[in-house]
Amino acid sequence: MAFDFDFDLLRELTEASGVPGYEDRVRDRVRTVFDGAVDEVRTDEMGNVIGTVEGSGDYEVAVAAHMDEIGFMVKHVTDDGFLKVDALGGWDPRVLRAQRVRVHTQQGDLTGVIGSVPPHTLSEEEREKDDAVEDVVIDLGREPEAVEEVVSVGDLVTMEQSTVKMGDTVTGKALDDRVCLFAMLESARELEDPEATVHFCATVQEEVGLRGAQALGVDVDPDLAIALDVTIASDTAGVAEDKQVTRLGDGAAVKLKDGSVITNPKVTRRLRDVAEAEGIEHQLEVLPSGGTDTAAFQKANGAKPVGAVSIPTRYLHTVTETAHGDDIRSTIDLLTAFLASEDGGHDYSL
User: Fold this and answer.
1) Does residue 245 sit within a domain?
2) Are 262 and 193 in contact (CB under 8 A)?
3) How many Å apart are CA 142 and CA 95, to the nearest integer?
């Protein structure tokens, strides 16, 4: 049952390029899916996409998952034709050496590589130096004049990677947060005749400070908000159990806290109750640091009850992010069951 969902759509979403503020390609695909699944689709001035399913009652719920992925913006082209970049989102520079990238220019996409000096030529001091994003140099394999003709300051850079099945898991780039975006879209397609009006929100610029959700929380102003994002699954060799946060294959993760939010205890309890009643595999998430759109919705337009469901993911913020197929399915099922049973009659006041 590990791949009981539309893998082709998941692959399209994750392989698409869309750094913060430039989510166009992902946004186009989201709108296409929404067109056949919701009652109304709109895009705001920041680029957030809202697909609304009208309910029979007055209660309104917002569900959020972000479209953007971490990447880079070109800040300088050297006289030798190499590119220097500025980070868009939080990179661990250790994973960047010798990676293949895609540079998005006005004349089309170019393949490049992040250079790495062979260890044979490094001094002892150079070998001990910590990697830094500011040291990244991108090689396009072209003469300087050819690079200057096609690349400009402000062009965008994303990692080049395919998304594939690996055993019971899916691995590739940008599962953060496209795997949750996918789960939200699948829920929108599966939800039938809800009592609550549901605004499915594909947000922008999460990786640079939850900016899209902050604005959207004011515009949509829901009675309840549920955010979807990936979470750490460091269930690998050499990591102590208390540092693992979640485990692949143990189900959708119901968030209790992260570095930006403490979820509403009553919302969390109801998510757990729904999962138990429906026999949906789930686990609890206590994430020491990091933030999600949940926090933006909690206080964007006054105090709001919020909850969050996460998909456990290994190797976050790399090109080999990995999630378990059953956890993806559990997240879709939990979100859909929760929304189907939300009638506005639950008291989330504390």
Assistant:
1) yes
2) no
3) 24
pLDDT attached to residue 61 = 97
* Residue 104, annotated as binding a ligand: no
Domain at 332, CATH number: 3.40.630.10
What residues in the chain have per-residue pLDDT under 70? 1, 117-123, 125-128
**317 annotated as ligand-binding:** yes
Q: Which residues of 139-156 are buried (b: 16+ CB within 10 A; e: fewer)?
A: bbeeeeeebeeebeeebb
Structure tokens at 85: 């970049």
Task: Provide the pLDDT for residue 290.
Answer: 87
Q: What is the DSSP letter of 245?
A: B
Give the domain range for residue 82.
71-159
3-state secondary structure of 256: strand
**Residues known to be catalytic:** 206
Distances in Å between the Cα of 317 and the Cα atoms of 126, 213, 260 are: 25, 20, 18
Task: Give the integer Cα–Cα distance in Å for 68 and 62.
Answer: 18
322 contacts 312 by C-beta, under 8 angstroms: no
Q: What is the pLDDT of residues 165-217, one digit of tens each?
A: 999 999 999 999 999 999 999 999 999 999 999 999 999 999 999 999 999 99
How far apart CA 200 and CA 175 sit, in angstroms, is 18
C-alpha separations of 48 from 41, 64, 282, 292, 315 in Å? 11, 10, 29, 15, 27
* CA dist., res. 201 & res. 23, Å (int): 14
Structure tokens given for 187 = 């829920």
DSSP 8-state symbol, 151 = -
- Is residue 138 a contact partner of residue 83, using CB atoms and an 8 Å limit? yes
Residues 203 and 285 placed together within one structural domain of the fold: yes
- Asked whether residue 199 is marked as a ligand-binding residue, the answer is no
- Tell me, what's the pLDDT at 122? 59
Is residue 141 a contact partner of residue 220, using CB atoms and an 8 Å limit? no
Q: Which residue has the tokens 């780039």?
A: 173
Question: How far apart, in whole angstroms, are the C-alpha atoms of residue 35 and residue 14?
Answer: 20
- Using the 8-state DSSP alphabet, how is residue 62 labeled? E
Same domain? 203 vs 246? yes
